[in-house]
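Supplementary Note 3. Input sequence used for the single-chain structure prediction.
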Amino acid sequence: MKTIQVKFKKIEVNEYDPLTGNVTYTLIINDGADKAIRRTLVIQDPQETGLALVNEIKQKMKEIHGKGMDSDDPIGGFVNILMPEDDDTEERVVKFFSSVASKIGSIKRSSVARVDMKRQIEGMKIIFDGSSEELPPKKDMTPSKAVRMIGKTSQF
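The predicted structure, written as discrete structure tokens, is reproduced below.
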């Protein structure tokens, strides 16, 4: 049996399309090495979206770390995925997607231009190091800086 500790590091909204409602986000996790996942979705149910993301990460980690294990050992093929403060991680992911969905809903109800809508949603992030909760978008975060940041991580 193999035990892997997976830590969520950050989720950040990279792009928002006000016409379709598509939100593109990047998730950075660490299982011994930093990995970045980029997804595009429409947030209809934040609870379901957050829980599905956490479950997908657990499943992917089992697939990645389960390869090449001894199949003769009855429990040799099992991979145990541990997340520090597991319930807290799920809650924080759900809370993040809820706040993004809430922000999108409140902006849609107001008379804000589409460019301003994008600016308010893009850059929303949560950092999972315990020191910060949901952060407002940074004004100086340019796409080239985001690409450089993501380029330093390995992707799966």
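The beta strands are 2-5, 7-16, 22-30, 34-42, 79-82, 125-127, 134-135, 154-155. The first helix runs from residue 46 to 66.
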